[in-house]
Design brief:
By secondary structure, the chain is mostly helical. The chain has a domain of 209 residues. The chain is built from 21 helices and no strands. α15 runs parallel beside α17. The longest helix is centred in the middle third of the chain and has 30 residues. The protein is globular.
Amino acid sequence: METIRLIYYKLKELLFLPILCLLLLVLSFCFESPKIMFNGYADIMLSPSILLTDYFAVGGMGATFFNAATVLLFNIIVLKLLKINYNGPIFAGLLMIVGFSFFGKNLINTLPIYLGVFIHCYFRRVNIRNFIVVTLFSSGISPLVSWVVFGSNLNYFISIPLGILCGLLAGFILPALVEGALKFTGGYNLYNVGFCLGIISVFFYGLFTLCGFDVARQTLLDDTHQDFLLYLLLTISILCILYGLTGGKHVLINYFNLIKESGRLISDFKEKYAIKVIFLNMGSISLICCLMVHFIPNIPLNGIMFGTIVSIIGFAAYGIHLLNIIPVWIGALIYILLSKEHFNSISTCMALFFVTSLAPLAGKYGIFVGIMAGFSHMLINPFFISFQGGFDLYNNGFCAGFVAFFVHTIVEHFNWRSKIKERFNKKKKQHE
């Protein structure tokens, strides 16, 4: 009986992603005729895809949902062929892939990078299964491939092999950098691979500039579907919460244990907690994001912002919860109010949500450090996209790596948290 119950729960976990894939596929045929949708999908595949490219503006809403469905399906098949079980990092990686399929990722620009990681594993004679998380996150540099092939104005006989070569090289280098990046950031940057991809992007951008290429950034947006996207996110949030609550009192008890976690890498919530606890965490984070979009003026809900929110929801299984993201959000909002930016740029809106990459700092060191981290991220983030030319979709992860290093090094050096606790304990003893 216990074995049957275990198989039942495993099946429920495995079905979530295929159901999500099916939902995306159904939505893709709800907005345009199949002919228009497939024409839009072709436009997406042939787009340079450099930051910031809203695929709603490139190929339309149906084509964008179809792109997300195909990319997710491809990754599910890869995991199935490799016989890999889903854990927190893989769950986060898959939802981040779905999110960025709304603005930058497609099958064409993903495949060469994946192949580069596979070649790395072949040369090192290690099992690709050991680097599957890195592989999933590696597609954050996918605009590099698309820009070289479709945006560099080179003849296709040159641009296609050159784009594939750049993707292979980026994927080949990445695993080596990831191992060192975790030490650099102390495990306090959840988008650790994004930090590494930013470094690779800087070198490619510098090389292209040296060769005389004009890597022109672009901002393509489509804000005409805000109500539908908000209702869709709200529906997903409520369904996740309701499903989580079906576990009863036991789920709530475990959820309160989960939000005591720091979230520092590597925090696999899915390994420690039941799937319903994870869904409750996902739903609560998604709901807060919906409320922020609705009540904070001038936050647009286009393909980029929708994808951003979907991406961070996945990290509910891998490091974030309400208690460690709220302080960094407060820090980010303080910066926005002081700088008087008022969400005038899409980059600012994205940074507000992706600042959650620094949530482990708040989880480990407390509210004040979390606020400081969120403020610092917003302070320096605008400069980082210009360093890497828009090739790194995880630009906020690139920025957060430096913030994580800066903040956690200072806090550890002065040992603030321990000193505060020590003084508190002394005063408590004196009072007694």
